[in-house]
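Before relying on records like the one below, remember that each one covers exactly one chain. Contacts with other chains, cofactors or solvent are not represented anywhere in the record.
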Amino acid sequence: MKFIRLLMLFFAIAVSLIVSQSCTKSASDKVVVKGSTTVLPIAQKASEAFYKSNRISISISGTGSGDGIKSLIDGSCDIANSSREMSAKEKEMAAQKGEQIKEIAIAYDMIVPIVHPSNPVKNLTLEQLKAIYDGSIKNWKQLGGKDETIVVISRDSSSGTYEVWESKVMKKTEVRKDALLQASNGTIVSTVSQNTKAIGYVGYGYLSDSVKTVFVNNVEPTIPNGKSGTYPIARKLYMYVNENKLKAAARSYIDFVLSREGQELVKAAGFIPVIDL
């Protein structure tokens, strides 16, 4: 009887160790990604392909660039997707906590004005876009369109897309108070596609037949124009990591995104690869 009890005890310890090791492996292998909705299509495509060959789970949520970077600094995610560079304030916050944040460019993107397909306006200058968004121009007739009040659709202030738009188009001027703020690229596309008077702006990868693309300064938003810098509202897309807490699984995932296969997925998602394919 004593031998049986000892045997059962050894068995229980062995099972406990196996479960413990399994949980530890699961926790270390799972990668949490938060941040930009612009980068979201790239992250999702890459995570699906990465899982097939590595069996490592990638949890992704589009919460906005600012939230992603904040989550990385406070340790609640492994990778922060961002459609803008970290701000001086965010860098200072990370430094105060002793964190070493590394910036990794994974793609190029363009921010593209969109209107309803029935809108006859084909081109807008940067100055005209600024005037629309600050309220100086309020009617499409002033731009060669119909005699209709312009409905302005913009991103919320936590969005990296908004911050780039603010920097390159608004020149730090505030967006008009009655602008309809949306939380993602997808909701802007949906809103503009259902409103003949609306104008919005989205990342290049979100363009669809449900909306009409508007040229900027007579430059078409094409991949060659974006990569060459000819298109005036171009930017890089980033994945940020904390080198103090970087998991091997997260490093492998980013290496995959930057590989030829990963960059092919960047292109398939409608963005511009950072390497020549």
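Residues 2-29 form the longest helix (28 residues).
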